[in-house]
Amino acid sequence: MSLLPRAALVLWLVQLLSTLLAVTAQEPEYTANYFQNLPSRLFFFDDTTTAIYHDLIDGNVYVSPDEGATWSRVDSIPEGDASMVIEHPFDNSYAFVLTRGLFHYRTTDRGRTWQRFAMPVPPALVGKPLSFHSDPQKYGYILYQGTACESTGGWGSVCHDETYYTKDAFSDEPELLLSETSRCQFAHSSKDFKHEAHSDLIYCVAFDTSTSTGMHSLSSSRLFSSTDFFEDDLRVEDLGIGKNARGVVAFAIVSKFAVVALRDLSPGSDGEMLLYVSVDTKTWAKARFPHASSARLRENGYTIVESTTHSLAVDVMLQDMTTTIGTLFVSNSNGTFFVESLKDTNRNEMGYVDYENLYGIEGVGLANIVSNAEEVEGRRAQKHLQTRITFDDGRTWSRLHPPSTDNQGQRISCNANDEDCSLHLHSVTIPHNFGRVFSSPAPGFVMGVGSIGSYLKPYDECDTFLSTDAGLTWTMVHNNAHKYEFGDSGSIIVLVNDEESTNEVTYSTDLGRTWRTFNYGFNMRARILTTVSDSTSQKFMLVGQVARSDQPGRGRYAVVYLDFAPVRSRKCGDNDFESWFARARTHDCLMGHKQWYRRRKQDVDCYIGDKFHEPIEHEENCPCGDEDYECDYNFVRQGDQCTPVGPEPIPAGVCPPDQPDRMYLGSSGYRLIPGNTCDRQTGIKKDEPVEKSCANAQPDEGEIIHQIFEFPAPVVQFAYFKESTTILVRLEDFTIWQSSNEGYTWQQVQPDQRFVAFYHHAYSNDRAYLVTATNVYYYTTDTGRTWHHLSAPLPPNNLGLQILHFHPGNSDYLIWSGSDGCVGFGENCNVQAFYTRDHGRNWKFIEKYVRNCAWARDAELHVDPNQIICEVYKNQQGNQRFFGMENPLQLISGTQFFDKKTKLFDHVVGFTKFSEFLIVAEYQTQQQALDLQVSLDGRTFASGAFPPNLRPDQHAYTILESSTMSVFLHVTTSERPRPYWGSILKSNSNGTYYSISLENVNRNDLGYVDFEKMIGLDGIALVNVVSNPLEATLTGRKELETRITHNDGGTWKRLTPPSRDSLGNQYLCDSTRCALHVHGYTERYDARATYSTPSVPGLLMAVGNVGEVLAGYSESDTFLSRDAGFTWEEVHKDAHTWEFGDSGSILIMANDEEPTDHVLFSTDEGKNWREYKFTDERIRVKEIVTVPSDTSRRFILMGYYPRSPPVHVAVHIDFSSLTWKQCVFSVEDPGHDDFELWSPSEERNELCLFGRQTMYHRRVRDVNCVVGNRPKAETKVVRNCACQKSDFECEFNYYRNGSDECVLVPGTSPLPDDDSCRNGEDYWYERTAYRKIPYSSCEAGSRLDRGASHVCPGIKAHGAFFWLMMLFIPCAFAALIGWWYVRKRSRGAIRLPGGDNGPRYRADSGVLDTLASVPYFVMAVAGSVWETVVEKFAGATTGMRTRSGYRSVPIDEDAQILRFEDEE
């Protein structure tokens, strides 16, 4: 009986002992090792237990063979020598230790043994001096970048980088690869960059010149390539842009893309960075961003962030370079076309971006944005960061939904469904651990430190969060910020406090459901928590700074080895796993497949134990859908369709010439995205070839084709996107039509909408806006490929005022002018202005009762980028439509987006921005006169000084142009009701002094002036003058004559007529007044139809006649000049409208007097003309249109049938196949290519124009070849010339008399002499009757602007005794002198911004730098009756003029007129 209880007791004790042993077995194991310094590198050899610890401060390397349990210093490397440790990325047995000298070390057995090798030069001071080959057969192929220095004597030396190569991991003798390099890399250096290039292909960024100083010009940096280690094969990669492929800054291989960054060194560029991308090493394409003006890549202003194998991601700083705010762009499959993915991304000063893709999960990524970017930019406020997540590779982004409870089960303090209640996480810009921030190879596990609320809190106020479904849902797992790491493929998670010292870690073995702690025995501040790179081990390393009390006799830093293997004893079986599908339900499929992993279940207690075996990704292909296809080559996206860019190229013989009705199988316009794995059999097959008519195929060489499209209503507005083949057309029936292939095919945009206007963004070539009569508008950021709609705060104004204003520096900044209460004749109808910083997603009120609100900043008016200037009515009540001069129009300036307002003027007629000038027409109430105010900084203004009787106070005036550092102003001098004409005045370089340039210049009733600058050649302009002003005053009939200037208005001459007409007959005109006269700006159907073209310097066409005066338009003929108007030839009888194509290699014209059925074209610049018939029914051609750059061979004829004028037609004529021969251009051998050097001075007695002899490249006239889109050659300034009379103009109050001399206007006095010597001159000169043209760069020679000279106060004004005495002035006076100097500087002159240090000239005058006239007391005030919406909107849009080509303005010598004394 007594045995039973005893046996039971024994069994109970055994069970208890087993339980105790089990409990003991569940404790992790640890060891600690101590070091003097934190590691600069701490890494594991891939798929091994061997770790490397590099102490850079002491220069030592330590090796652990057992995941950090034990450590030993590498004795074979001398102590203190190790400056860099680099592991082989493709062979886990190799690593290299580089020293600062010539001897380095290598291991081939993961650190057990090390061998020494020698190099001729020490390693270069770059981040990656070694580059490796990815082919397993060539793992020994390594490139080494070193620095070679040569002593120059004394203390100095000259150094340059050079690259060596080894084919046996430095066991062989290294050979010199290339000298003067900055980066070399194998083309086969990434497993993702798959291509068929030669296995030994190497790219090097290197200089093509040697130097004795160690300094190179950026223009000599190029990308070289070789397939034989540069022994015989040395090529310069031209990137598809020829000799312009210079200025290379960097080369990198990112995922499957090879990327080259180079500085744009073309003339007129601002140093923008360009990216060229290749996916096959054969073809390179320029990376194109959706809005070219604002998405400019600047050095240190863009970052290529972590990218996928099917798109490249680039973060670009678009705003102020000091705010570290970017915009994320993602590319298409070949890395060339980018779309905006996420705005206001957070960056740091080092260029790191808060952006990371989740490891192993396609399409999922996390990023941080700056939610208060406006305040950060405008007021330098503290950033408020918010986290966004994408599940579809950056196409869309959403907030992180927070958990509803905290880690204690308490409800969070805000509503999780509220947008202001989101989870935000700290990211890349402030790293707190080694390696990836959020994820690891453990599938679907994501951790982060963050906070819940409207924006991210500081790190030490945050908590720790976990997601087990790739970011879809989150839980709070611990208070406070912690470092975290995943182990055993995610089955164990380890945390350590990251806010203060601690002696314990927290861990979970059930996917974060429950947590336990482990004490490792001493306090330390955690710095690093890591494990093997694939997160498959149960062992971790914790590196921290040991507390002072635990430091005696040991190092300052400890490596704690943590082994969690004893915690669990059972290995997982098949039943312990489940299938886990990645991504959100709404984005199941990405790149054609679903993605899933086999993952351990949450509620099982076992370890996975598959060490060094990453979880296997499984894919299930999805049926193909629309998102799996992209546009095929030679097709572009227009809406949801891919349309051809033109006729489709087809193989020879497919379409016989005698069978135009034959069909062929051509591209559908779509192709499957490369790398997409969708199942075509169960989905849609958008890439199936389709039958097409041979009539639509690309014609044979020598043939011309055309297409005619009939619009259902008359055309009222049309315009191309700049640098694009897409054109928009608005019809009278309120519809908008679009063609993305230069009029070959047309599509209606948003057929269910009625549009009253459209605008192209003035500074962002890819953006346009379609305005409806409601507050809904449509916009595109990709040249019309897609259109999206947004809502404005009010409907567009119907008072004829401009609706949209654009910002030159940030294309998302818009100003909208809408009308409130203006339906019918509302009692309080007024125009209100709003601005947006996020492209219309949010609008903020500016002011009401405004007539014009615009950004103060312009392309070259570099004022405060956040300043807004508004014309605001003083009395803000009543119907604004009927306001007149009795209600003063104030000019208000508002900085910080109009938060801080300043009234600039009490009463203005209007303001305008021209190049670097802000010009205001101020109304002087007491004098009832106008005053012209000019500013270069948007804050300080100076009154314009005018010759007697030519002030604009009692005259209408038109501001004409300001591209050559002066303002041209037309002042009407004729009196009503006579026909209008006036004088052209020209200002000094700050727009304040005006002198007469030419009198009696013609203008029309609307204020437009017969004045036009030549495009591409500054300082050349054509005008028409009224030759009979006295007679015209009585009869009302003006007789016009044409004048031309070649020195920016200094002198004007008649046009020299040709000796014979186009038929070879002599002209019946032989008097001294006989000249060529041409019809000007005031008579054009479309103001954009200019005399000249930006693509061919010196080429002009015009309609006119040879005689004493200008004949009627229908009595005129067509003329051409190839030398900037010095000589002319008649090219055809009758008046024609014309257009230039392909940089002048083809000219086209159509009869402009009557309907026609053909066009005339010339391939030799008008020497010979051929006819092409395009219709059987004649069309009245009103306009010939081509791309704005005049570089295409495709044209659109806009016109109508005389039988039915309301039916307008667009005739697309394609000359692309006229010849397929490409023009050859060679800078090195200019005499043996298809181009010639030409100078405007060739036909002049003087060799120089604007004080310099300039040469331009242009195609040889008789060569029939295609110029295409090749970059334009650089303008070549041969030399600056000695000054001569043509470099001078009349000074203020002087005019040019009949003897071509400048004489004083009777009754006036000259300006006082300027003796200020402000720029450190040795002498000052008395004024004369002349002043130097600011645009001229002449030197020495005849200085007509200098009178008697006087020594400036300074060194030359004092003798040696004076300066000797100055040496003995007591130092005690220094403070007094400093005080006096400050006081003196606080008085004196207001200096206008500017101050160019370079040449005061350029060569890119703008197209139609002309403003509408501002008649006295009227200045753009709309009529009192609003007859139709479309008329007002058309007036507000088609009346705009394009402007281009600006520069900053140096301070003029006459800036002293702005001098004033400060108030005490």
TrEMBL record:
Domain (VPS10) ranges: 50-699, 725-1357
Domain of life: Eukaryota
CDD domains found in the cross-reference section: Sialidase_non-viral
Subcellular location: Membrane
Keywords from the UniProt entry: Glycoprotein, Hydrolase, Membrane, Repeat, Signal, Transmembrane, Transmembrane helix
SMART domains documented for this protein: VPS10
One protein family per Pfam: Sortilin_C
GO cellular component: cytosol; Golgi apparatus; membrane
Location, primary (coarse class): membrane
Protein family membership: Belongs to the VPS10-related sortilin family.
Protein name: Oligoxyloglucan reducing end-specific cellobiohydrolase
